Amino acid sequence: MANKLSLEESLVIGSGGKLTTDPKDTSKPLVVRGVIKKDHVNACIKAGRDFYYIDTGYLGNFISKGNPNGKKLWHRVVKNENQHSKIRNVPTDRWKKLLEQDPSLSWPGWKNNNKKILLVLPNPKACRYYGIDFDTWVDETTNNIKKYSKLPIEVRVKGSRSARVKEYTIYDALNSGTYATVTMNSMAAMESVVHGVPAFVSVPCAASPLASHNIKNLSTPFKPTQQVIEQQCASLAYGQFTIEEIENGTAYELTEKYS
């Protein structure tokens, strides 16, 4: 049977009623979904109120052995931020299970591609969330890439989910000679690092512990060790959940335990 509850409502149920989707019920932490809820997030921060942010998961939503149709199986649940931007000390069991679902997520080592820079444009909604002007970010980032590299730039626009998953995927782009991926906070940065291609990010995000943060370092991008990469992968695996896990309380329990 298809899930009839929203993800927000499912998390409230999974919490045993300890959370709420009602911004006015300030007696409980608030569940918000998506970057368009920035006003609610700001209100929580101002009031010192905890919030639980829900959005698309980090890894495992592409076509793979365990996800043959490339469905959105995983949804991230983050306490008091919108991505897990710091490495947490968690077990490795969930990451190992994710590798069983998609063996291509096994880190291949750093690649030595040198054909192009992949510029992944941010979601305009995410820009507004961070108070960043989309056009200004694109222009400044493009100019900085040209300043520090002579490689051609491939611009990747966020298209439909079907196109991203079943047509020219991020992995197709990475496999066609990408030297480094540059983005604001897109999941493409994390996918890039896991695929052995260095990444650059502009704001706190899941790839922050593994990526460079200044385009001037384009010739010497940060390349963390496999151990550090896998530690963040394990941390992210403990921050994304199936709908069933959100409903049955697993997501709430693990988010509370490791936040």
Question: Can you describe what's shown?
Answer:
With 259 residues, the protein is of the alpha/beta class. The chain has 2 domains: 7-87 and 237-257, no CATH class; 116-222, Response regulator (Rossmann fold, 3-Layer(aba) Sandwich), CATH 3.40.50. 36% of the residues lie in helices and 13% in strands. The chain has helices at residues 7-14, 38-47, 93-101, 124-129, 134-148, 161-166, 170-175, 187-194, 226-237, 243-247, 250-257; strands spanning 30-33, 51-56, 75-79, 116-120, 153-156, 178-182, 199-200, 240-241. A 4-stranded mixed sheet has the order 1-2-3-8, sandwiched between helices. Strand 6, helix 8 (187-194) and strand 7 (199-200) form a beta-alpha-beta unit. The relative contact order is 0.17.
